[in-house]
Every structure is written in structure tokens, then in C-alpha cells.
Amino acid sequence: MVKVALKLEQRTKLSQIQRLTIKMLTLRSQELTDFLHEQVAENPLLDIRYGDVKSQADAGKEKPLDAVRSRADSLEESLMKQLRLQTLPRPVLLAAGLVIRSLDEKGFCTGNLAELGQEYALDGATMDKGLAVVQSLDPPGIGARDIRECLLLQTRRHGQAPAGTERLLSQYYEDFLQGKWQKLQHEMDLSEKDFKAIRDFLKTLALQPASTADAETEFIRPDVEIYEAEPGKLAVRSLEELPDVFFRDDLYKEYEAQGDKKTRTYIHRARRAFLSLQSALAYRWQSIFLVLQCVAQYQSQHFLQGLPLRPLRQKDAAYMTGLSTATVSRVCHGRYVLFSGHVYRLQDFFAQAYACQNEYEDGEISDQAIKEKIRDHIAAEAPDHPWSDQELADWLAAQQIHIARRTVAKFRLQLQIPNSTIRRRLKE
């Protein structure tokens, strides 16, 4: 006998215009142009035109960009193709897709899994399963949350790693970073030959997951420019060359006057689709403009004077602009900015905040400012006594910047500075 049961659950339901707006926020210039062409092909009452139409004299000439070949799949596209081949429950596939979209340019998973799944009502367990799926894809190490996990994932996938490698990474990683070879060899009860085999094997692994993916030259075109409109005043402008999509009012009036009820229903639906498209386009640019304007104003000292970034999170930008954190995240994802002739990732202008109570700071200091302090302090160290991570942490604490030694080690690795033991050997 079939049992019938009721189940009450809460789901997020989005309207058509909300789904359209979310989709368009993440699209960059060329992707959005392709999307607009698709909309025109589906709606017979829409048409499209460009502002730089060729003259009759130039009709036979080819634009330089027309001959540029299409690039190979990006890392994100490659991962999504691998994901589509997986036979998994839909929530897990959705969670894995969200994880892939949150990966940084090095292939690390830096997003908050709980926040990523919140918008789609995915719990922590489902997001963890999605992360595990991504970490099973190629290249090995993709989706790791730090360098240690990246090395562990590659070791487990290798299959022929020397005995003790996984144990070293799991239990003695900090000692390994500090180059305490004799201590490690003694505590792990390894012969000198076995320990050397582990070290030689680890040298073959990639420190960045994305570095093992097939690399191909890709030209990046910024979507927005931050420029100095007046001395000491920054402004924002769009660099996108989007086609103009317009509604065929002449056809609409003709079908409205002569068409039957079914035809009129169809053209009314086509008009609503156009209005939704217009609203989504306007909201997209307004969101991008508000976020860029917020970043330009808040980080004006960085742009104009070259000072370190001030602490700024996406949550802070959402509060200052009145947008949701999810909207700010979509604006920042994969978007590039032109400033003073250089192209930057929009995400590069956000910085994590750390407490600082000294006379030069206003209660907070950014991670970039701390990195610069560490770099400058190491540059001035004595050759025969390089600063250890603990000594650097103590030095920062004397300046009322309290961070853990492991955080100092993380910043030092991000600066691509070796540990004190290796620095001493290099200088000797």
C-alpha cells in the first residue's frame, strides 16, 4: 500500500525578472552581447543595432578584432563540463556549481560555503558534498582552501607518493614550512633517504591548483574604467560596447490592430519580455556603477596616492550601496577594471580588516597593509639573523597589530617569501 505523507519545506522562489537580473549581472561584455542576440532571435518584435555601423566605403574591410580566434575553455568552463558528466543529486550538483563559481584565479575555494548555499536554501552538509565533488575534478588540488589542502589532494590523487607524505602534511605541516628537517625526521621515525624522497616528491607538486591546468594566452578587456575626472576626484565610466536592443512599435501596432486574440496575447507577452530586459539591463549597470563608485571613493587614497588599501569587505560595500551582499558578489565576480593604463580585478580592491589600535590607524588595518609591513621588515633584516614568523608576529604585536603566527606565515607565502631558514641559506 502506498503511503502518502505531507512535507513542509521552505524554498526560494524567484520571479522571471529576478532570474533574468541575476543571470545578466554575472555576464561580461561579450557574453552579454551574445545573450542579447539570443533574446532578439527569440522575440520577433525586438531588433538590434550598433552605434559604430560601417560606412558603405568600409563595408568590405574587416575589423582587426574580427580575425581573433576564439580562446580555449577557461578553468571554470572546463570544470563545469566535467561536472555535467557526474551523476549526482541535483542539490549536490548545484552546490558544486556554486563552489566552482567562487574559485579565485589560483583555483582556491575562498568563499564562505554557508553564505554561498544560503541563497539557494542549501545546507552546510550539501555544500560540503559539493566541495568534495569539485575537489575530485581535474586538475588535482582544485577547490582546496589553502596550500596545505592543495598538496594533500594532489598527494592522495598521485597514487605513488612516498610513504609518510600524507602524514607529514596532516600532522607536521608547520614544522615542514619552518624547515625543521631533523625534528621531523626524528618524530616521524624516517631514514634520511625516505625523508629526502618525501621532500623531492613535494617539490614536484603545484602550490596553486590552477597552475597545472592547460595555460593559454587570454586577452582581458576591462568592462569599467576608474579615472581622475578632476584633480583629486575619481569617476567611473563604462567601457562596454553593447548593441542597442529596441522594440518594434510599428509591428506591435500593426498586429494589435489586425491580429486575432491569440496574436495579441503573444505580442503583449513579447512586450513584457522587452520591458523586463530593459529593467534588467538598467539594474545591471546601476549595480556595477554603485559598487565601482563605492570602491573608488572608499579607496581613493590608494588610487590617487598609492597608499595601502583600507579594510573593505563585500558586506561593507553592500551596506554602503544599499545592494544585497549577493548582488555585490555577482558584480565583482570575473569583472576587470581599468585604472591609469593598468587592468585590475575588481576583487583586488577589497581587503580584509584586522584590529589595530596604534596612533597611525583608526582601529582597523587591511591585510594588504600588513603584507607591506612584513615585506619591508624582512627586506631590512640582518643576513645572519632573518626574522622567524613568530618574531614577525611579535613585532606586529608591538605595533598593536595582533595576528597569529600562522597568519603571518600565510601572508609571507602570499608574498612568495621563503621561511627564515631558507632565507638564511640563500644569503649565506
Automatic annotation (TrEMBL):
The protein, known as: RNA polymerase factor sigma-54
Domain RNA polymerase sigma factor 54 core-binding: 67-239
Pfam family, one: Sigma54_DBD
InterPro entries the record matches: RNA_pol_sigma_54, RNA_pol_sigma_54_core-bd, RNA_pol_sigma_54_DNA-bd, RpoN_core-bd_sf
NCBIfam families: rpoN_sigma (TIGR02395)
Family in the record: Belongs to the sigma-54 factor family.
Every RNA polymerase sigma factor 54 DNA-binding domain range: 265-425
This protein's UniProt keywords: DNA-binding, DNA-directed RNA polymerase, Nucleotidyltransferase, Sigma factor, Transcription, Transcription regulation, Transferase
PROSITE patterns, per database record: SIGMA54_3
